[in-house]
Amino acid sequence: MSTNPPGGAGSSTGGGGPCGACKFLRRKCVADCIFAPYFDSEQGASHFATVHKVFGASNVSKLLLNIPVHKRVDAVVTICYEAQARLRDPVYGCVAHLFSLQQQVRTHDTY
Asked: Which of 56, 60, 21 is nearest to 42 (CA)?
């Protein structure tokens, strides 16, 4: 799995603008913003919009605070992937993709 978060790695508020999450939420991005390293100002807002719609900003913030810093990038990538999958298939989410792949393997094995 890629370790680059969907919004860009190492983003911060140092560029002058808010991170993608704060931009989407229309709030001031503070220096210790939990979302800034994972949702950059460019593409981060669109990625965060999906995450916010499915999980909610507060829930994701709480989740990230309970994950060790060195594992947060992978967590954000996973959260974004699951959020996108949940929008495509609200019932099964990413499990629908796994079912599809299993079916392809079964079909391939019969030949």
From this structure: 21
Q: What is the pLDDT of residue 5?
A: 57
CB proximity list for 83: less than 8 A, separation 6 or greater: 50, 51, 53, 54, 55
Averaged pLDDT score across all residues of the chain: 86
**What average pLDDT does the segment 48-59 reach?**
96
**How far is residue 64's CA from residue 77's CA, in Å, rounded to a whole number?**
12
Distances 66 to 33, 55, 59, 95, 107 between C-alpha atoms, Å: 15, 16, 11, 25, 41
